[in-house]
């Protein structure tokens, strides 16, 4: 079952990658705000017209 | 939502005009430094608390501030915390930023400090590692669970070794707080719940490590990681707080950051801390007096609403003593500092109570339980090792380790966080926001409720009008009500509400004289509405308003309405015998309170802030468990000394004095329910503790008979934890979840 | 300072949108043809008899087209639209975007140009040949490069939850594709899987399952988190839940591969592992579904009016159903019935037609009016499409569920005397024909709905004009929270996307090496069976034809250790039997009987002539058979030019042919072919041979491909059940 070892390690590597990603995201404050981003996506960012 | 968010400079929130120099203090270098997070030649970054943020369009408006003022580079709103982080041009003064925010309707609250959150991140790391390890090890151990591990020893050792590696950071990072806590407890020669937890965890880990290294199998690493993971989830649940609410406001949050000092007719802005006794200061309309002072101006109107909850300003004459916390109304005043801000009456009251030790009744109860528990476990371990010495001496070590492992009070440790956390969530859903879960503990045994009167029992936004004298014509009334509609003064508003049925008329030359009243022209006649002085009439005290035109006059008195329905419900359900009132006012409302159902001997009037605090302390001394509800800064002492201090608020996110909980005024009638939840949660906790001890006993029985297997441990641990979570959630939810909705 | 002005690239979105529609319609059409072949085999097999659209060749084309062409392009369409807007940045490189687009279409075209010609690697959902696999890897990395560079150069700091799903998709699919596609090329058009037998199966289904997880699920969840709130114009129900949902899903999905191999020769513990994790998957999957549906709470009136939301609601419901059903199917007692039947087909089509299809339609209807700055040409038509498609799904899935359930039970039926009730496998298939006809109608409806949409969208596009570069304005908030004291290490890297990519490739390479090493040092512990010998050159060639014709699409080669299986086919399969199978041919669906014991079980074993006749005209031998007639095997000469190469390739992969055997292989092959041809002719009824020169006939037959296939079929299961001496 050599394959199982390989898969286990590959899976572990991916999982470890995501763990690192999770850390990075936490550190960067990605989870600081768990509401505002969901509203923010609804806004369109059309440019302002010049005659303001 | 599309069109709704379409940006308009005038839309959404009403732009406001700021007072001149209102934010000038922000440009003082030392004050500015407090708020600026980062600064270089290109940009300045600042995070400000904006209590007015309340809906999605606020996010849109604020994040498009750069369209109003190009010097603002970007804004990012944190809705939950009601904060915005702004990056702006260094050429723009901080005061201008504040002015802009004020203009669009979001006045920054400079009293808020912005030091939070670092701890939370470390915690998330700990949780992430434990969760990752738990999931992975569970996976690798699955063949073991199905009894298939021995089929393939190579694979088994391989995964065991992986488990060992993965669990190292769990031990040293995720679990470290428990070790530290246990170590501290032991060093202070006491025992808390973390001690048996630590012993259990260590036993689990060392036993597993030994098994793995000696190639005997994967050990209990799954249970180990699971323990930590569940414990941390419990902690996470317990530590969730209401981010946008401030429970720990320092008195400085209410005071201005800087004041205008007068030196030889020269004015300078200085930070409040730099004020000394004897300094002369200049306080303008709507500014708050930061320290106890003597009035130097001839007279001044001072609004003590922050302090007492009374919305109507009082008039003081030259030489009068002015307490810190009052707000100047109308004409600016000159004052002489009597005591520095730190030493004002209010501050001292505050400082006395701020070190209140949180009631950790249940935790202490739990810790005591932990002591007995630990003693018992050690005893059992001793007895069974003796027994095994007789039966089979080789098994002794295994049995002792097994006992220590299953005796790990994981479920016990989860009982309190989940029960209290659920109760807190339930209370929050219906309007009572607790500072933390230890307030739930304090709530469990409350037997006495003490009310502040003004602003708590009375509704500051609803008045009864008593007409003392009236010489006015109907036409006059129409004009006066039209005038009142133009003003935002609480009494004017009350007037226009009471006479809402009257039509309007076109007034000219409208002029609001701050702190005095308003005047206007109609049909070439001068109409005046305001204080006795303004109308040149004789005051009779209390909240009053004069209407005068062409020598004709009307004299009105205003009395705040009681929240009758709510109070009656509360008195009925809690029992009048358990309710007290501490009022700062004189006895004029005594009758009304008695009609409501209060008991005469339990009404106390003319209570100074210190008196209130002392009264509460006396009740506590007589063995009562006191909950105090108040709303003003004058209640700070009482709020602090009560077992549970509840600040009542019409607007949850604005000024509330330091307290253990904030109660939405709309939910006041639910107070008896809240107390019931508190009491009930104690019962729930006991049920949970019983369950977790049962699980431990089952485990112990197995361990004593030397039958413990990793699979058994791996099943027992999550099942006991999940039972606790379910019991605590469901019991509370079923009993109160639906009741509180209406 | 002014906010930065820039523009979003809408043209690339438009391109992918058209590709989605065109390939979608094509893929569904191919699916319909495949479905019709099973419903009306007489017409297709006897009347048309086209080798290029025979079921075994066209079914892989269908699966590849709908997964990688329809859904794949749909993913990229949604990605390019949402990613730019979520990051408030144009794609990092337009050139890369368009290279990605044309590269991806080329890959699809390559698939279309290879699969019908039998150029396949023979692994389900990964049939494409080695050089196309390399192209896929290249284009995928190109896309990832562009995506990461855009992410690193974004204007906003926060990565919306959709983007995490995108990243997860990229990383895992890359990894899975690369690991599953290790192949040893024999020629430009032929390669062998690096792994053999059980190992190959394990990798294949690890890939297969995760292809579902990370190609059909995570990207669409990401898109759902963007497009559903956008369409409903309300924030997602719980953003916090979406975060927790993401992490739970990611950490669980990776592990759940082996459940496709229940009752296979995979060790029990490995199967159990897959089951546990599959069941655990319900929680995070439903987290996503509920989060999507609850987003619409309070706006159900909007759902009534807005056709786009209707599509999404059905999509989410279908997602919920199939993610509930999936774990159920992984339970052993359910799997006993469902595996190898049309139940699985129904299950994947709930996911495919329901979740992916309906979500894609919803996105298309939402995107076209925005890309072309106009109103949808006909809302009524879109509504009609919705109802037709929904009806189509039901008409497809329900008959398939019934068919699967029926067939699964029929296989299990025993007479009181212990014999199988349906000993004749064909009986369990012919009864399903009405259901196959019904599902073809379902498919036809679904396809016609897609055509309706095509027309509607083209008309919409005509009535407006493409806003190729949509102007936008945003302020940079990315660096808002970076502390002044010292930079984080990744901050430094972020500014250098190319270096970052190289670095990550190095890391991946190191990782790869570390991962390979254990397979080399860990002793191979597949129980070896001494009697199992490598295939003869003729059998090997026959096997390659078996793969070419896609026989595995209808015939499994795996007898499960269950009474009704062993009673029907013989001894259950052992891992050791497959050690020389590059690639494994276990299959996943039995439209025809299992072939694992075809040559070994004396009760099943047929004569060479029977096979000859059966391949030439299946219905003459088994009346009512759905199998196409493989007359072209009799027409084409066996190509021997690659035989020595193939032997050498097998030797490289560890198959123990004697040293220098490649030189002797062709001679051996001819000898064996001659024997078989002789046997066929010898057993042919005399009246058939009347007036034919037998020697010439033998000489003719022995050169043909059909001999090789027969040789292979007769070898199946022979090694462990029959003493080698019988040969």
Would you mind describing this structure in some detail?
The complex is a heterotrimer of chains A (52), B (742) and C (727). Chain A contains two helices and no strands. Chain A has 52 residues and is mostly helical. By secondary structure, chain C is an all-alpha fold. Chain C contains 30 helices and four strands. In chain C, helix 1 (11-39) packs parallel to helix 4. The interface between A and C is large, with 37 and 58 residues.
What topology emerges from the helices and strands here?
The complex is a heterotrimer of chains A (52), B (742) and C (727).
Chain A: H1 2-27, H2 36-40
Chain B: H1 29-35, E1 36-39, E2 44-49, H2 56-63, E3 72-78, E4 83-88, H3 94-103, H4 118-145, H5 153-174, H6 176-187, H7 194-213, H8 221-239, E5 258-263, E6 266-271, E7 280-283, E8 293-295, E9 299-303, H9 305-308, E10 314-317, E11 321-322, E12 327-329, E13 333-337, H10 345-354, H11 361-391, H12 396-406, H13 410-429, E14 432-434, H14 437-443, E15 448-452, H15 453-457, E16 458-470, H16 474-486, H17 490-498, E17 508-513, E18 517-522, E19 525-530, H18 532-535, E20 543-549, E21 552-562, H19 564-574, E22 579-582, H20 590-596, E23 603-604, H21 609-621, E24 626-630, H22 636-641, E25 644-649, E26 661-664, H23 671-704, H24 710-737
Parallel strand pairs in B: 15-22, 15-24, 22-23, 24-25, 25-26
Antiparallel strand pairs in B: 1-2, 2-4, 3-4, 5-6, 5-7, 7-13, 8-11, 8-13, 9-10, 9-12, 14-26, 16-21, 17-18, 18-19, 19-20, 20-21
Helix pairs in contact in B: 4-5, 4-8, 5-7, 5-8, 6-7, 7-8, 7-12, 8-13, 8-24, 11-12, 12-23, 13-14, 13-23, 13-24, 14-23, 16-17, 23-24
Chain C: E1 4-9, H1 11-39, H2 41-48, H3 55-87, H4 94-114, H5 130-152, H6 161-180, E2 183-187, E3 190-193, H7 197-232, H8 239-253, H9 268-280, H10 282-295, H11 300-305, H12 307-330, H13 332-338, H14 342-371, H15 379-412, H16 425-430, H17 433-463, E4 469-474, H18 489-494, H19 497-521, H20 537-548, H21 563-569, H22 608-616, H23 618-621, H24 632-635, H25 643-652, H26 661-683, H27 686-689, H28 694-701, H29 705-715, H30 718-721
Antiparallel strand pairs in C: 1-4, 2-3
Helix pairs in contact in C: 1-2, 1-3, 1-4, 1-17, 3-4, 3-7, 3-14, 4-5, 5-6, 6-7, 6-8, 7-14, 8-10, 9-12, 10-12, 12-14, 12-15, 14-15, 14-17, 15-17, 20-29, 22-26, 22-29, 25-26, 26-28, 26-29
